[in-house]
Amino acid sequence: MENAGQEIHADKDETRQLDESPCMTPNGVTGQCININECKDLLAILDNPQRSKEEIELLRRSHCGFADKVPMVCCPQITPPLDRRCFTYEGKEGTCLGLYSCPLLMGLLKPPVSKDNLSYVQLSRCESPDRYSVCCGPDEAVPPAPGKQAMCTLTAAPPDPRTECCGLDSGGGNRIFGGNVTAIDQYPWLTLIEYRGVRDDRIKLLCGGALISGQYVLTAAHCVVGPVLNSGTPINVRLGEYDVSFSGRDCVQVEGGGTDCTDPVVTIAIERTIPHKDYNPSAKLRR
């Protein structure tokens, strides 16, 4: 390396040809032996006429051969940023963090710890390098303390039965469209997607969709790829569900004292999912 002065040089007889082979940097980090022009950090040091003795020594120790008389250096591998997006138990987007980094969930573990709060924290676990990771969501994702009135907020996910929230209408309807309560049989093509939990093997309702033919349901791409898979795997489509807080057929009172009931719910296994080829779950505008 001529630019590094006399500190780094090659013997005239040295003719090693190296192809991006694995190596260990002077700092003990795994790297690749590549052309120095392709290693941004070391190239910046080489091009700096005011480089220090320590930087010259780093260049010398990073040297790993030549390729066509061009110096090769052990360049640290750049690890892509970890995708920490996840979905909370209620289906809201959160961040997968170590438990101690999530004040929302840590607050639930202050003595005395209720059984419900402990269960909620356990169901909030997610996958990350941290020893005990949880999906840390927004403030309203945390269940209210016993006896405290829940704050109902609009969400695309089915309501959590523990919060006693069913949409935003005080009349008790649980399907809100444009601010109006829908009739029990008004949108029969709407579906729910059942997910099997990654950790607890429980059925979770994290997304919805629309039946567009006898065999296909249209849903958002982020419902079948990306962080949602850290919470569960889509396994079934549920048809005919009106109120998820009740099991069995859903019924409402109609004029004249009669009752209008839905047909029994139909659950169909998902054969395969087909995300849009241009969907990028890592993009900021992914939705």
UniProtKB/TrEMBL annotation:
An MF annotation (GO) of this entry: serine-type endopeptidase activity
Region annotation Disordered: where it falls in the sequence: 1-22
Sequence ranges assigned to domain Clip in this UniProt record: 22-75, 85-136
UniProt keyword terms in alphabetical order: Disulfide bond, Glycoprotein, Hydrolase, Protease, Serine protease, Signal, Zymogen
Coiled coil residues, start to end: none
GO biological process assignments: proteolysis
Domain Peptidase S1: from-to ranges: 176-287
Family: Belongs to the peptidase S1 family. CLIP subfamily.
Name by which UniProt lists this protein: CLIP domain-containing serine protease
Source organism of the structure: Pieris macdunnoughi
